[in-house]
Amino acid sequence: MNQPARDKLRILTINGGSSSIKFALFDVGNSLQRILAGSIQRIGLPGASLQANGPSLAESVSQRVAAPDHTAAVSLLMDWIEEHCGVNALAAVGHRVVHGGPKYSQPQRITQEMIDELHRMSPFDPEHLPAEMLLIEAFQRRFPDLPQVACFDTAFHHDLPRVAQLLPIPRRYEAQGVRRYGFHGLSYEFLMTELARLAGTEQLSGRVILAHLGNGASLAAVRDGKPVDTSMSFTPTAGVPMSTRSGDLDPGLVWYLARTENMSAQQFHEMVNSQSGLLGVAETSSDMHDLLELEMQDVRAAEAVALFCYEVKKRIGAFAAALGGLDTLVFAGGIGENSPPVRHRICGGLEFLGVEVDEDRNADNASLISPDDGQVAVRVIRTNEELMIAKTVYRVLGITEVGSAASLS
């Protein structure tokens, strides 16, 4: 095929989850402008659908699809991309890979050696890695000459201080790679870049807490631009309560439930990942918007919201102690960006740290929700993991290689 001009090149980003695949297309020649975004939702469940929109499409797409598993979903996705976007202009594909384990601390071009290693690492993250590997290998088979880049969600936290990495279990497990890794790294990297753009690079030398609050929720403490601690640990199940994940629990529960309910390790794993968090406490919904609407009539919903806000507030206090104070607090993620009541409740009582919220700004989802003269700048920043993946692919491959890679056999 003829190589397209640089201003026609595209980077495709793939973000695979346990029941969804999100994708986006970026125009290389126009400062990585996103020209399409979409997803396949409810993979393996009734009512699976493909949705897409963006300036590269004549009209938005929303259609039911047959996606009984990830194999069928990725085949459908590749067919759809070939039909609606073409592959001749594709320069590369960037994948969000949730867990890089002890080996991968930087984004890298995907090789067969890496694929083999990630398969060996699948026990580190059985919820995500198998599905992500399926996506990578499917693209490799369909488009063998198309470069692919793995963007690891753990990379941002890889160089945490030694004391923050250690887990208080027998030391022999550390040799197996068992340590605190942390996740949401692509989001945190984007948020730090945006913080520098919005507030100046001098803000990066301060004491920053980033709160990525969505279906998955975590916090990170950053000092002098470097991560100091994070709430998630060896897996994304740890930390604060989430939509369906429990967050931190007493490990004694494993033995208690094994004795009283004959619960297996797999059943416990499923419970703490899919049946806990907001859903487990509220028993009605895992969606924060739903729970806020229900809380006046349903004490279970009210308690779920209260527990979430309380645990996030506690983590902010702990991280402020680790940082020796606080200069900037950033809210991001679906809840952090769009829920003024949650931000209000989290920040309430943190005045002793210098946190103060302007309620009018908070209600408007303003980018700065603290007073102009506030001791701590409290910001709302809309995260963009897909753009971070596209920028990473561009950087890892380099524009010369990206250009030459667009010629597919």
Question: How would you describe this structure to a colleague?
Answer:
This protein is of the alpha/beta class. It folds into two domains: 147 residues, Nucleotidyltransferase, domain 5; 187 residues, 2-Layer Sandwich (Nucleotidyltransferase, domain 5), CATH 3.30.420.40. Helix content is 38%, strand content 18%. It is built from 14 helices and 13 strands. The strands form two sheets. An eight-stranded mixed β-sheet has the order 5-4-3-2-1-6-8-7, sandwiched between helices. A hairpin with a 4-residue loop joins β1 and β2. α5 packs across α14, α9 packs across α10 and α10 packs across α12. The protein is globular. The N and C termini lie close together (7 Å). The N terminus and C terminus are likely disordered.
Chart the SSEs and their pairings.
Layout: E1 10-16, E2 21-27, E3 33-41, E4 49-53, E5 61-64, H1 70-84, E6 90-97, E7 108-109, H2 112-120, H3 129-142, E8 148-152, H4 162-165, H5 185-199, E9 207-213, E10 217-223, E11 226-230, H6 252-261, H7 265-274, H8 277-282, H9 288-294, H10 299-323, E12 328-332, H11 333-338, H12 340-347, H13 359-363, E13 377-380, H14 385-405
